[in-house]
């Protein structure tokens, strides 16, 4: 089968940072399904793994997490899917990735693809949908429901992949006031179009902008990018007994800044359930099916921004470069082989 991988952690402009190669088609065992991959999307975790996880001598690492495709074969213990089913998922950080024609994945972290979306549109969503859903409902403890909620959710980095889903979930499924941050006119418009009540500029002092909005107390904060840079400001903004959730990789944080307000810090990693084979691992299957239903019913929309072409090393290098530059709005997708 065709695949894209790397042998050494190199800058993305290096010739062999990613390369095309041929490898054997894997066989499903246990609860694994084998998916014929039709489309993938690129995420910041792809380039972060490429930079810090160098394969052992001679090994080739295949990156990629988001995928949409068709079940090609199933392991003997599979009960949720059968060959021919259209699926979407975000994979496991412990295994080879989705930048390959065929891919093995545990059925418990796979959902049925939304019927109203193309493979490309669907591939944009799984990782960010899981992350946003778990962050909002599992980590920050928000209860779904449109009753009035006298709190504000501040989303730092609203135009990114996770922010684009989180804005929609919070606006469509809760009564929270949603304030997103964006620093460019196009990303500001993107956040407003997705449903944010207000947008502020994270490149300028944020507390003054929040105060000027006269919104309910900022009890919940989703810090999605540059958390170490913004942490002092966020600690100043957060309401007493608030909750701050983050998904990025700050070098260090002075968590003592939260003590006076008895505010709590919550990490979200969508790979936790699959990495540790948690008892509730199937929650991601159920979550993806729920998100698919919300999409098919017109509640949520895809966050696809650009299709960069077919799945190959040249196009994946372009996607990594765009993500590393921090200039992407929405999701970057590759489709076909």
Automatic annotation (TrEMBL):
Family: Belongs to the zinc-containing alcohol dehydrogenase family. Quinone oxidoreductase subfamily.
Any Pfam family the entry gives: ADH_N
InterPro entries xrefs: ADH-like_N (IPR013154), ADH_Zn_typ-1 (IPR014182), ER (IPR020843), GroES-like_sf (IPR011032), NAD(P)-bd_dom_sf (IPR036291), Zinc-ADH_QOR/CCCR (IPR051603)
Annotated Enoyl reductase (ER) domain residues: 14-334
PANTHER family: QUINONE OXIDOREDUCTASE (PTHR44154:SF1)
UniProt entry keywords in alphabetical sequence: Metal-binding, NADP, Oxidoreductase, Zinc
Coiled-coil segments on the chain, per record: none
Native organism: Afipia clevelandensis ATCC 49720
Gene3D superfamilies on file: Medium-chain alcohol dehydrogenases, catalytic domain, NAD(P)-binding Rossmann-like Domain
Name listed for the protein in its UniProt record: Zinc-type alcohol dehydrogenase-like protein
Gene Ontology MF terms: oxidoreductase activity; zinc ion binding
Keyword Oxidoreductase attributed: yes
Classification via SMART domains: PKS_ER (SM00829)
Alphabetical list of NCBIfam families matching this protein: adh_fam_1 (TIGR02817)
Transmembrane region(s): none
């Amino acid at each position: 089968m065709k695949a894209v991988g790397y042998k050494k952690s190199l800058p993305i402009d290096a010739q062999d940072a990613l390369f095309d190669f041929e490898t054997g088609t894997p066989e499903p065992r246990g609860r694994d399904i084998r998916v014929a991959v039709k489309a993938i999307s690129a995420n910041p975790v792809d380039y972060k793994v490429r930079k810090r996880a160098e394969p052992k001598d001679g090994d080739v690492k295949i990156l990629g997490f988001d995928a949409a495709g068709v079940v090609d074969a199933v392991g003997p213990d599979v009960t949720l899917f059968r060959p021919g089913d259209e699926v979407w998922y975000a994979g496991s950080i412990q295994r080879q990735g989705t930048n390959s024609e065929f891919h093995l994945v545990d059925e418990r972290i796979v959902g049925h693809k939304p019927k109203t979306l193309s493979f490309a549109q669907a591939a944009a969503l799984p990782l960010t949908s899981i992350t946003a859903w778990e962050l909002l409902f599992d980590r920050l403890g928000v209860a779904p429901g449109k009753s009035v909620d006298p709190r504000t959710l501040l989303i730092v980095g609203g135009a990114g992949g996770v922010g684009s889903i989180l804005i929609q979930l919070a606006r469509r499924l809760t009564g929270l006031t949603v304030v997103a941050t964006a620093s460019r006119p196009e990303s500001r418009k993107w956040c407003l179009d997705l449903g944010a009540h207000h947008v502020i500029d994270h490149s300028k002092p944020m507390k003054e902008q929040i105060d000027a909005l006269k919104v309910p107390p900022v009890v919940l904060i989703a810090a999605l990018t540059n958390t170490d840079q913004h942490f002092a400001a966020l600690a100043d903004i957060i309401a007493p007994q608030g909750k701050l959730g983050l998904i990025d990789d700050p070098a260090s944080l002075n968590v003592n800044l939260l003590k006076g307000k008895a505010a709590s810090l919550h990490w979200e990693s969508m790979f936790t359930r699959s990495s540790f084979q948690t008892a509730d691992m199937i929650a991601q299957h159920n979550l993806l099916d729920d998100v698919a239903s919300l999409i098919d019913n017109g509640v949520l929309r895809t966050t696809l921004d650009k299709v960069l072409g077919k799945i190959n090393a040249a196009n994946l290098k372009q996607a990594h470069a765009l993500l590393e530059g921090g200039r992407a709005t929405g999701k970057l997708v590759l489709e076909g082989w």
